RNA sequence: UCCGGCGUAGCUCAAUGGUAGAGCGGGUGACUGUUAAUCACUAGGUUGUAGGUUCGAGCCCUACCGCCGGAGCCA
């Protein structure tokens, strides 16, 4: 048995394939079967002189499974350059009225058929990139002396902020699905030095945006004897490693996804770094203001250009004779209308957007808009450190020179993909940690075990978490995070 | 929770308040190399639901339901 990926090595020789029919075209005395087998796609040519195979080929429907054999040959007319001259084809499982056609579908329809949508080349490519990236994440830590430590999914309480957790009935007690493994990892780091966890995490936030999932995967390293500058270096090296892995192993997939790889090739250490306070100054600066004004003007020109283009297309549509021309124009018009609507909405909000940057007040958390402005300014992954203590979690270590700040670091992906890493140096001093928790009104009892880490041989340490799906979305250049995970769990969607 | 957009054939979408349409997909047929093939014919509808305005509603108004994505929150 041969796979489609290997075909180029079998030119002029007979092979047998097993797969599925994803498309079919026919001339009078010839049928073209488009077969995929998980490794790639191949055009299989069945001519009328193939006898029984020709009749069988004519009867095959989209997404039926089959065995097929014949001679491999190189042909310029074949997509991919190679095709199979079929000698025989045997149906395995039939497929009647397969719902996903080779024409465009809406999001809702595709999400309801996610179990079948995965079969399309684009979705399969994304899953392969996800696999390669997850492999790279594990290898990065494995090769650097980290030990994988699995942290519990059922946990008694919130690590940072309540109200965003899913509750579960646990033998008549209320417990929660974990939103981080961090506190447990800190324990493990005191045992093993360098550790990481990799697993699903759950957030009950009522967010319906292209960046949010209710269930997503996170990889979290935790490192003993590490301080903030060490963490930033680790985060930087990690991201560079992931991008390299994608560029090395996923070129065909990225090409299929039409990803602009030059943007990824520019991802090299060191990343631009700013402190939170510098970021706020930047938001207030004339440089940024000017950039935003120019972007606004450019978008307005784009808007006018698109409007003019739309009018041209509509005029062409009105006079188009052939139905295939009309169809083609309809698709172009539809896509353009959607782009125009999105841009129009963005333009409407623009004055407020620009003013919000200018009026951003020190002490509040950076919002999505501010993140986008900053990451567009640098056009590479951006490290922002030392946020106000008030907007961050209790376990973060305050800045030794300015107690209003904490020693944390976030990494923003470029191109508007948002925060992909959040991390910090942890408070390792028992008294400081206890008083901070008391200030926050926290009940210490459930955290006694966590405080023990500070009672017995405490050391400076820290770590961070990287969101797998946001990283996949960024590296693949996807518009929406829902395509980065096989079966997304989002607000209001549970099936399939 | 708030704001905005959408809901018409299996799918993607059209339709000045005036007889509900096209393409794809399905079916039948034609075509010896197709590239989301093409061409001809054909079947397919309670326009999300319930009210209201009107001589007349897919279109206007109200409420509800569903979907989309933006804010807040976050990776």
Q: Termini separation (Å)? A: 33 Å
Spans with pLDDT under 50 lasting ≥5 residues? none
Structural class: alpha+beta
The figure for the number of domains is: 3
- Tell how many strands the DSSP assignment holds: 16
- What's the CATH superfamily of the largest domain, by name? Bira Bifunctional Protein, Domain 2
Q: Number of helical runs?
A: 15
Helix content: 40-55%
From the 3D structure, determine the CATH topology of the largest domain: BirA Bifunctional Protein, domain 2
Radius of gyration based on Cα positions: 27 Å
Gross morphology: globular
Main beta sheet: strand number and arrangement? 8 strands, mixed
CATH class of the largest domain: Alpha Beta
Q: Strand order, biggest sheet? A: 6-10-11-16-15-14-13-12
For this structure, the quaternary state is: single chain
- Write the CATH architecture name of the largest domain: 2-Layer Sandwich
On the 0 to 100 scale, the average pLDDT is 89
Question: In summary, what is this structure?
Answer:
This protein has 496 residues and is an alpha+beta fold. It has helices at 52-59, 107-112, 114-117, 121-142, 182-192, 228-249, 251-256, 261-265, 276-284, 286-319, 323-358, 368-378, 430-439, 448-455, 468-476, and strands at residues 14-26, 30-36, 41-47, 65-74, 82-93, 147-148, 154-155, 167-170, 173-177, 194-202, 215-224, 273-275, 382-385, 408-413, 418-425, 461-467.
